[in-house]
């Protein structure tokens, strides 16, 4: 809480509208770091686009030339970052997107309305 | 170019609308990785919100308890990722945001309007 430009309304301090303070940057960096790996990006996109909003780990692992423990490790990092959630049902674990987290990142990366309008950016 | 879901119109394959293929994931991951550090996030936000759209390196360094070479290294990683651009004028280097890159990341993280929202999510 270094209070540099803390005029957000409790939601989404824009990355592009005012300098982040140290606390905000320290909170956000692990989220982006979790996305900074191609296997995790593919896992997240498979989970996010899964039928019914969830995907069984048994359907994720075969898509990669990686061991089950390696996939589990990447899934754990995505879960710890708050990007996905999991639920065990019987033998398998099912994963689903936490849309609030990706929404937040999208908001943070969206230019403020008073800057030159980005073509096609969602508000 | 593994061509799994390559139906984008040359712009922005949504991370959340269809599984990324390996090539897309390999291209995107370094961008997120570049953002996965609190110092780089702060640098990017300082640059993006700079008056006149640019910031002199001489104004960036004093904001951190870090050496000039360390700051330069972080700026280089942001530049290599295509998130910022730089121009030397006289003694100093000036940095500015590459808004197309952050726009692209924001688009990628924005849920498709026609997708069934995961549990409890506002559409």
UniProtKB/TrEMBL annotation, chains A, B:
> Is Transcription regulation one of the keywords UniProt gives this record?
yes
- What CDD domains does its record include? HTH_ARSR
Q: Where is the HTH arsR-type domain?
A: 20-117
Question: Looking at the keywords, is DNA-binding present?
Answer: yes
Report the Gene3D superfamilies cross-referenced here. Answer: Winged helix-like DNA-binding domain superfamily/Winged helix DNA-binding domain
Under the heading Pfam families, the entry gives: HTH_5
Taxonomically, which superkingdom?
A: Bacteria
Q: Which UniProt keywords apply?
A: DNA-binding, Transcription, Transcription regulation
Q: Which InterPro entries match?
A: ArsR-like_HTH, ArsR_HTH, HTH_ArsR_DNA-bd_dom, HTH_MetalResp_TranReg, WH-like_DNA-bd_sf, WH_DNA-bd_sf
Q: Which NCBIfam families match?
A: HTH_metalloreg (NF033788)
> Which protein are we looking at?
Metalloregulator ArsR/SmtB family transcription factor
Q: Which organism is it from?
A: Kitasatospora putterlickiae
